[in-house]
Amino acid sequence: MSQSAASSAISASPRVHALLRRLHAASASQEKALSKTWFYFKRLVAFYLFSTPWGAAADDHMRDKFVALEEDKCHFMYLLARSAGALNIVEAGTSFGVSTIYLALASVSGKVVATEKEPSKAARAREHWAEAGDEVTGVIELREGDLLETLKRDDMPEQVDFLLLDIWTPMALPTLKIIKPRLKTGGIVLADNTSMARPMYHEYLDYIQDPANGFKTTEVPYSGGLQMSVYLPEQSI
């Protein structure tokens, strides 16, 4: 995506735009590597044929990988959050903190609660946010460890306006269920790679597509799929 396209979508300083271009380029280079494609292929086959869970070997492989939302998805997410006036945002799966920068820029005077279980990735994310500077650093709170525990703490925002799910797919539904009691009416939930990994998302998709659970949902046709859901419980019947 061209620099002018990024500049027209995102309100940020030239320093932050330069940082994001660099991080997206590094992430895209990793994603194009044959070893990364082979890893994803093996993971999908193992899950489809044997229901093999995510394990230590997968963690080791991903420890130095960005696993970042693509730039076009980040622009969509940023504009969506800005248009919704999202103040309190939760990001499940921070990795190197690329998408977190967009969420912090979108939140402006609000708060982004970011989660990451891998300490080395959390450290890299903090480095990137420090490089971005005070446009984002005062907005982000990073919670390290198991997000199924860190998101249950009493010091969570009382109301959550926006939730990004960019994590190992079986974690998507448990995370949503933790946040749902705080999710405002009209709150937005984005889940990444819902087309590419649809069988692995089946519990999550079954849940949000059930009208009794209060969500209106659609898939945005980005690469890999991006499920956008809006919490409208009063319209659930």
UniProtKB/TrEMBL annotation:
- What GO molecular-function term can you cite, just one? methyltransferase activity
Gene Ontology BP, a term: methylation
Task: Spell out the InterPro entries in the cross-references.
Answer: SAM-dependent_MTases_sf
Judging by the UniProt lineage, the source's domain of life is Eukaryota
Swiss-Prot/TrEMBL keywords: Methyltransferase, Transferase
Among its keywords, does the record have Plastid? no
Presence of keyword Methyltransferase: yes
Show the SUPFAM superfamilies listed in the entry.
S-adenosyl-L-methionine-dependent methyltransferases (SSF53335)
State the protein's name.
S-adenosyl-L-methionine-dependent methyltransferase
